[in-house]
Design goal:
Number of domains: 3
Organism: Rhizopogon vesiculosus
Structural class: mainly alpha
CATH class of the largest domain: Mainly Alpha
Keywords: Membrane, Transmembrane, Transmembrane helix, Transport
CATH architecture of the largest domain: Up-down Bundle
CATH superfamily of the largest domain: MFS general substrate transporter like domains
InterPro entries: MFS_trans_sf
Strand content: under 5%
Subcellular location: Membrane
Membrane topology: Multi-pass membrane protein
């Protein structure tokens, strides 16, 4: 993104998640199509005792093979962009050594390097990467917290949706089979990706990144509410038109949530203390987001399973999801109206 000028950043970040959306579209289709292959394709896999014993081996093996191919292509075909190589241990200990040797203040870029060069100009200071402690400014921390809380909800919701669809109606789900679940999730990802590519930049230019982000976060409230509403409709009328309309409404609202990701990328870029520290700043944000993506599916799926047990509150998982929503709303309050306001204040 260093080669993109600031006015075109929203358009560029709108295109960045394309590989992720393609994976989200193809992944559910693979899982829904190749699950239980011995039963669904007996003429091809009916004689395989392995696939009869492990009915979900094939849908797990297909993406694993693609991942292995991608790794091999990356390792053998891509060229390293760094001409000088440093040992791994040197890369690990270097940030800690810099922190101990330079005690920077987060308030000023010049203070961060005062001990290392008394004659450094402002341009020279701005071109140097800051140590980790100097990167952890209030701006970076606030954006990372907002990004992590939003990613926590998204990870939780994406793990709950297929479980909710597969759970019997009498237990709080919709009793859908894997092929239909895969088709729904694949179609939803296709619409989300297309909408983001076509409209995100326009919405950002028209309303600003914070307004788009706030709309996506607020959309999480009806997304959660539609889970029990959809199950109630299914209990009363079966898989009627009303149920399918509720499913479509939930996925349509998820499109708003998807718009939060490029907004967070723009805020993270603007929060960086200087351009040279952009990599470290993104690393801090991705560290927080990765933790949220680990915690989200584990906690949400566990609470959903707990709520399905007899004698427990069936709405426990929805209370949990709603708590994450309000956490994300609170974390987003510290964001400026537009990322450029932070950049202009540097």
């Amino acid at each position: 993104m260093d080669i993109i000028d600031t006015p075109n950043l929203p358009r560029a970040y709108g295109y960045m998640p394309i590989p992720f959306r393609i994976g989200q579209m193809v992944g559910p289709l693979v899982g829904g199509t190749f699950s239980q292959p011995a039963d669904r394709f007996p003429e091809i896999f009916g004689r395989s005792e392995l696939l009869k014993t492990y009915p979900y081996l094939l849908p797990c093996a297909v993406p694993a093979i693609f991942t292995a191919i991608a790794w091999l292509l990356t390792y053998f075909r891509l060229k390293e962009s760094v001409s000088t190589k440093a040992p791994l241990w040197e890369l690990i200990k270097e940030p800690f050594l810099r922190q101990s040797s330079t005690k920077p203040s987060t308030g000023s870029l010049r203070d961060a390097f005062a001990n290392s060069s008394d004659e450094a100009t402002a341009e020279e200071v701005a071109s140097r990467p800051l140590p980790l402690r100097a990167v952890l400014t209030p701006k970076v921390v606030s954006v990372s917290a907002s990004y992590a809380s939003m990613a926590l909800f998204y990870a939780a919701i994406t793990s709950i949706v297929p479980i909710f669809y597969a759970t019997p109606i009498e237990l709080g789900g919709l009793s859908l089979d894997p092929p239909r679940i895969g088709a729904i999730l694949g179609a939803s990802s296709l619409v989300q990706g297309a909408f983001q590519i076509l409209f995100y930049a326009r919405l950002n230019y028209r309303f600003g990144a914070r307004a788009v982000h706030a709309t996506g976060i607020l959309s999480c409230i009806p997304i959660v509410i539609l889970f029990p509403v959809t199950n109630t409709l299914a209990r009363a009328h079966g898989m009627s038109l009303a149920v399918w309309l509720a499913i479509c409404a939930q996925h349509a609202l998820t499109v708003n949530l998807i718009m939060c990701f490029p907004c967070m990328d723009l805020f993270m870029r603007a929060a960086a203390p200087n351009r040279a520290s952009l990599g470290t700043t993104n690393g801090v944000g991705q560290f927080a987001v990765s933790g949220a993506r680990i915690l989200g599916p584990v906690s949400a799926a566990s609470i959903f399973s707990y709520s399905m047990q007899e004698g427990h509150d069936a709405w426990s998982v929805y209370y949990f999801l709603m708590a994450i929503v309000f956490l994300a709303i609170g974390a987003s309050m510290s964001l400026p109206r537009d990322p450029s306001l932070w950049e202009n204040n540097e």
